[in-house]
């Protein structure tokens, strides 16, 4: 399900690539891009065969350089609220995809772009990546979840540093802050992604989904309830074929074969 500004391709293994394709504007998020993301993410959510998703920006300069400033400039408060709610709903859908989702950041990852990356499960960056939340320089605050997801990911002090100064950080500083999980050279990016995809495909898809559900749902619960949630998802794993296959394969010294 692709549009003019967002491509959504799923390969025969079930690895999906969701690509924002507006490179002349550094993939800035305008309403067409939001429509394309919405359609692409709904499509991915409806497909059981999806084993993992890579979110990328087209071209070699940017992941996404932010929400489209030209379009945002025209908004009144009601329009800004509608724009923010639409963006939030789309990013929540992305966050709730059952399969793991990685943001692949090569180049600028600013403002709404950084917020999009934060709605992914983790970030793989090249050493050319640049992160920042520059909104206060434009007279606004982050509107696609940056004031909420960034402090949850890197802690409130580091988030306040980035959001109130608007400063840009390179990939290595982003990694030290816990914003980027892997930093690789541009030349080794595809190999890194291929390694991640192979790991997803090697492991049990239902167990991967259950682990993701346990982490996100548990994060919103008090610890005692979160631990019980984990126990019930753990027990659920013994009702399907994956646990039988995984353990039999170990004991029989062979590779497991999980249904996709
Ligand atoms: N919006 C629109 N166009 C953009 C853009 C953006 N965010 N970023 C870049 N472009 C466009 C440029 O205008 C230029 O277009 P042409 O002039 O060629 O037509 C083209 O992309 C190439 O950009 P540059 O010529 O500027 O390229 P440089 O290499 O010189 O500079 C740059 C790259 C990334 C440093 C620079 O483009 C830049 O500073 N861009 C803006 C970065 C930025 O401030 N991003 C944050 C935007 S604010 C909310 C919802 C969401 C948000 C807030 C509130 N609610 C509704 C409440 C989110 C806000 C943001 O994301």
From the 3D structure, determine the CATH topology of the largest domain: 2-enoyl-CoA Hydratase, Chain A, domain 1
Bound molecules: 4-(N,N-dimethylamino)cinnamoyl-COA
H-E order:
EEHEEHHEEHEEHHEHEHHHH
Strands ordered across the widest β-sheet: 1-2-3-5-7-10
Question: In one word, what is the shape?
Answer: globular
| Whole-number count of domains | 2
Which spans of ≥5 residues are poorly predicted at pLDDT below 50?
none
Report the CATH architecture of the largest domain: Alpha-Beta Complex
Helical content class: 40-55%
- Count of helical stretches: 11
Task: Write down the Rg.
Answer: 19 Å
Sheet bearing the most strands, described?
6 strands, mixed
Strand residue content:
15-25%
Count of beta strands: 10
CATH class of the largest domain: Alpha Beta
Amino- and carboxy-terminal Cα gap: 21 Å
CATH superfamily of the largest domain: 2-enoyl-CoA Hydratase, Chain A, domain 1
- Class by SSE composition: alpha/beta
Mean pLDDT: 96
What's the layout of helices and strands?
Layout: E1 6-10, E2 15-20, H1 31-45, E3 52-57, E4 62-64, H2 69-73, H3 77-95, E5 101-105, E6 108-110, H4 112-118, E7 122-126, E8 130-132, H5 146-154, H6 156-165, E9 169-170, H7 171-177, E10 182-184, H8 189-202, H9 205-219, H10 223-236, H11 241-251
Parallel strand pairs: 2-3, 3-5, 4-6, 5-7, 6-8, 7-10
Antiparallel strand pairs: 1-2, 8-9
Helix pairs in contact: 1-3, 4-5, 5-6, 9-10
Residues 25-26, 28, 65-70, 80, 83-84, 87, 108, 110-112, 134-135, 138, 140, 142-144 line the site of 4-(N,N-dimethylamino)cinnamoyl-COA.
């Amino acid at each position: 399900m692709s549009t003019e500004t967002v491509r959504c391709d799923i390969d025969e293994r079930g690895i999906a690539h969701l690509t924002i394709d507006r490179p002349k504007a550094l993939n800035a998020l305008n309403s067409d891009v939001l429509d394309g993301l919405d359609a692409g993410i709904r499509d991915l959510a409806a497909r059981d065969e999806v084993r993992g998703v890579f979110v990328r920006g087209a071209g070699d300069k940017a992941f996404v350089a932010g929400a489209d400033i030209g379009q945002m400039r025209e908004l009144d408060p009601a329009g800004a609220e509608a724009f923010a709610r639409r963006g939030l709903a789309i990013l929540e859908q992305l966050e709730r995809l059952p399969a793991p989702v990685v943001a692949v950041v090569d180049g600028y990852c600013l403002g709404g772009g950084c917020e999009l990356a934060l709605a992914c499960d983790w970030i793989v960056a090249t050493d050319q990546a640049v992160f920042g939340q520059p909104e206060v320089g434009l007279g606004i605050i982050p509107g696609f979840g940056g004031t909420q997801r960034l402090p949850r990911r890197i802690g409130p002090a580091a988030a306040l540093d980035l959001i109130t100064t608007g400063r840009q950080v390179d990939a290595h500083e982003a990694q030290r802050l816990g914003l980027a999980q892997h930093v690789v050279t541009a030349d080794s990016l595809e190999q890194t992604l291929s390694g991640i995809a192979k790991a997803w495909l090697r492991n049990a898809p239902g167990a991967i989904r259950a682990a993701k559900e346990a982490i996100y749902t548990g994060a919103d619960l008090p610890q005692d309830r979160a631990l019980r949630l984990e126990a019930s998802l753990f027990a659920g794993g013994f009702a399907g074929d994956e646990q039988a296959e995984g353990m039999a394969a170990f004991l029989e010294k062979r590779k497991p074969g999980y249904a996709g």
